[in-house]
Amino acid sequence: NVYRIVPIDGQGQYELTVRPNGTAPLQYSFFLYDSLAGEDGKFASLDKPIAGLRNSDIQANADGSFTITIDNAAAQGRRNHIQSNADARALLIRNTLSDWNKQSPFAVSVKRVGGPAPEAAPSEAQLASRAVELLKAGTQTVLTLAENGVAGADQLAAKNTIAPPFARGGGWGFAAQGLFQLAQDEALVVTLDPLGARYLGFDLTTPWLV
Q1: Are 147 and 153 in contact (CB under 8 A)?
Q2: DSSP string spanning 42-57?
Q3: Which member of 59, 77, 115, 165 lies 3.0 to 4.6 Å from 12 by CB, making a disulfide possible if both were Cys?
Q4: Mean of the pLDDT values across residues 169-176?
């Protein structure tokens, strides 16, 4: 996946212009969230988008380009509209590539077209304080994921097994996970069957999700 994050004012109005940059991604989505890193006590909603669009929802032009509107009003006939609310803080753009030699993420431009007047620019001290808050929140989020797993501690009870898949927030896909503990002379063999899925990925990560 290629991810891009756009800070959003839940009371603002936005217009996204999206254009192919060569061969389009296999799958893509645009989701609004109420936090960036689980800050302000919002860890539970990290994978629960406020609203969004998946590629199956989007009506594109003949050349593959499309425009997305974002504001807190209903679509009222508008194509490719995402209804925001006061809690919206971030737009996550996800492009899934199955062939990294051919496919490229979309070119995206964002324009704020309406909403309340922007607040005064924060001071350096305010920016530093907010950065510390986000770093603390991000650290705690990763620690909680490492301890409990994305789907909960019960999914990680048995070492060297893969738990049943669970649906990702917004319905864009499924994920499954497991913890592994191998001796120096042991190897883990994992057999994957796509079962008709258009895309299947496999990742190994450190406890810090690297």
Answers
A1: yes
A2: -GGGTT--SEEEEGGG
A3: 115
A4: 89
